[in-house]
Design goal:
heterodimer; A: 485 residues; alpha+beta; B: 228 residues; 4-stranded antiparallel beta sheet; 7 helices
Amino acid sequence: MFFIAYLRRELRRRMRQAVFIALGLALGVGLVVTVAAASAGVSKAQSGVLSALYGVGTDITVTGGAPPPHYSSAGSTQPSKATPPSKNRDGETLQISPGGGAQICDNGHCVNAAGRTYDRLVPPYREPISASTVAAVARLHDVAAATGVLTLVDSAITYPANPADSPQLATFTIDGVGPRHTPVGPLAAATIRSGHFFTPADSHANVALVDSGYAASDNLKTGSTITIRQVRFTVIGIVTQPQGTSPPDVYIPLARAQTLATATKNLGGSVANTVNLIYVVASSAADIPAVQQEIARRLPGDIVTAAGGLAGQVTGSLSSAAKLTSDLGTWVSVLVLIAAFAVASLLTMAAVGRRAAEFGTLKALGWPTRRIVAQVLGESLAMGIAGAAAGTGLGFTGAAIIAAVAPNLSATAPSSTIGSMQQAIQAGGTALGNRTIMVPLSPSVTIGVIVLAVILAMAGGLLAGALGSWRIARLRPAAALTLVA
Amino acid sequence: MYKLTGVTKEYQKGRSIVGALQGVDLTIADGEWLAVQGRTGHGKSTLLNLLGGLDQPTGGTVALEGTILGALRETQLTRLRAASIGFIFQTFNLIPTLSAAENVEAALIPLRVSQPGRKARTAAALDSVGLADRSAHLPSELSGGQQQRVAIARALVKDPKVVLADEPTGNLDEDTRDDIIGLLERMWRDRGLTLILVTHDTSIARRAQRTGVMANGRLTMRQESPTR
């Protein structure tokens, strides 16, 4: 085909310039691809952090408000002198004797703790939320699903027989969840590695699911047993949560969690038929603000948080990286692209100027201007396609380099988040601090980005060709031939 | 074939206006060979550009077979050039990246001739100028005379009614000049072309049927020459 043969020969004749233009476009496009890949990686990391802090697929969470002043520190193993130790159903409390030795007291009868284990089940330092409230939230307009969870921490202190040895503290986190596998809640994104999820028949059974990380560290597998507040639970499944999340160690049926928590009676009130956390999914992203507002209106004492708002509160190097990619990265990419487009356009214009005689001759031969323009546009487009291919390659390389050299990013979330609350409970239950999560930066080049790269490079080529074409269209054949003379 | 009436052409040069042609009246018969002589800058090439529809007169009319070129749109002029007018330039004006055959074929592109048709006509045209064995050569691989032969083949491949040659031997040595003029004369005779040839060379001009001399933008007819 004459068009292709002419195009190929011309590009070969101006090989150095063609390569220069293509490389310029490739540099711009490569930078765009790299920044887009880094941005996607940061977004993925942010999403991972939000999932870790918030729960995969969750739009809104509701946690109980601050407890009244009489509310005691349920998890404290060292009650203050002003507050006598509360008694649970078993009548057990842990007291430190004036001599410094630990005693486990049961209905006023105290025994030396040496050789014994003091096991406490600690709900969070928040007001419980009733099951009816969960149901009411689930019925709200624009709420797709809502589920209540009771988060607990099992804290067991084993005192060695020899008082000279240090006591052993073992804690693990527990989520009491509904027996049905729902698209919202702590198990929504979990996959079962062995065994099976809960079934409705497990509602009141002493069965548990164990997170794969905790199972590995405690050598647990399906069929193993774990003890929670002196009750043995059979492990029926090992679950794996998405990377970057910080799941609880153990999941048990909600009803069993409520029963065990009630049995401890250390909240200053019953937690029967209550939860301390509601996961909410809105019907659509656009509905989230309205749903959040409605829940806050109905539950004025509780804390209602939306993932969007939480994202803005995340600080640390992840936040800096997000700003870097969105601000500096984008602007550098845009500037390099503009420079590449400008260089491509100028070189094409100059080339058209040098080829004025050629185009004048073609016009004298009777070539319509549009045919000559198509020829020049074809050449520019070919350079754009070469730039797109090279730019995509550069982008992949840039993304690979970032993945290889970028350190893990830290994300610090405010204390009102779920994960932080659980962490605070583990730390003693009295103070809720910030929580920092380390997440890897994994830039990813998507098909969409590649398409964007190709479009950008071709647009650059076409822009350069269009400017050249504009010059050709203005070229008078006689004037062009005079240039020859 | 051509009828020029009171043709003027002015150019803006800085703040002044230069009159390249000043009231040229000329009639060129169908199949005639007209040579145009004159010193550099006296309007020979301007006249040729107006005859080829490459430029528009400032005043007067240029009519080709009754059609006033100045009244045509650019697309119509382009079509007219593609179908009816062959150009031969002093500097050959071959596309440097295309082979001899492709340069000749380029003249058939705007005529929408099928590819096999283009190939056949190109081969015949190159054969007619004695370059059948050089069809795959690039212009840079050909001598000046051979390049001009390719340019002649390119001008003739579309069977034009008129060939406009602007000093076609200006860049050639004497022997090659004679070859090229001989070739052009043969083509003119064989094909019944109208040939308008601009030249400095009086010996070439003498071979034409008529010779006009351009001086200060005015054309004066000098001689009648032998018929075909």
